[in-house]
Amino acid sequence: MMKNVVDKFIRYAKIDTRSDEDSTTTPSTSKQRNLARLLVEELQAMGLSDAQVDENGYVMATLPSNIDREVPVVGFISHMDTAPDASGENVNPQFVENYDGSDIPLGNHAVLSPSDFPELLEYVGQTLITTDGTTLLGADDKAGIAEIMSAIEYLTNHPEIEHGTVKIGFTPDEEIGRGADKFDVKRFGADFAYTLDGGRIGELEYENFNAAGLTVNVFGRNVHPGTAKNQMINAITLGMEYDRTLPHDQRPEHTEGYEGFFHLMDFQGTVDSATLRYIIRDHDKVKFEQKKMLAKHTADYLNEKYGKEIIVVELADQYFNMKEKIEPVKYIVDIAEQAMVDAGVEPVKNPIRGGTDGSKLSFMGLPTPNIFAGGHNFHGIHEYVPVPSMEKAVEVIVNLVKNVTRLEK
Ligand SMILES: [Zn+2]
Question: Does the annotation mark 174 as catalytic?
Fold first, then answer.
């Protein structure tokens, strides 16, 4: 299992699949199809004869059941693209064998140091795969792809292992928030699925933020500053007042765990008009709705204070906490947890402070918790993945497939 997952990972990591948020096509970059084509070839070579890439660049394949009773259909999903934040061209993975806990010179004057990233010390004695200091590594999420591919290969090489129908899905454009958009849940045909898109070993995630975007439009009145007394309304200062009126402690830099926030991401303004763009996040649905109400009430309060409608807010929901879709089928988390324990991995269940493709898929009718793929420091030159974490992920997938055969359809 071991050599295979590493070889696969290196092969996939070397293919540039960076996505592009400014593109309007799907996939956002046609180079993602290079990896999609390779994966289809490899899946077919393993005997998954229906493997294909669709017109939007999604790869889907089926490992048929080898038992004669009906059990649920389980899916495994990873994304093929890498983040637009850093170069994915000429990725040149480096091996650090038997890591001794010291600084790792990456090249290009970059260093991967436990003084910056203390969790490195948890991997002393292990083989790590790092970047060469010039690109990201793409363990997010090619580690996940390599792990799924290795697990499928293992199952096809071990026909004595009983399994039901297993579906494989590789998506483009996760990093630009579009990975689930054109995912054909019906064609995929799974009862539930798992994304292999988490970080450190043991991660098992089924709670994420509820998310909304807030745009605050401020309308001022520009008058010559020399004669502005009691006349001018400065949209910039009003925008600042709006922001000050929101709760100071509910900002990203002051929150963690289950604490939600208002995050001011962009503020453009002149005396005439200003626009503030926020994101609102909270795991708790009630608190999420309260935050949206507060955004409106803050505008109402200032409009009343100034005696005219000078602030107009627009709110748009973006995604929701998958927990409400997972809770009714909580056993899918339980069997994943058991799969980890059986592989000697301690499950770590923390709420995601963001969203996943799985949260969108869960609301599209495919409950999809997230499992670790093993990497760290995503989206930059300090990205790395410990080889044993990848091997354990393969084992967890195989265990999960076994656990599904104990469920009733
Ligand atoms: Zn990812």
Answer: yes
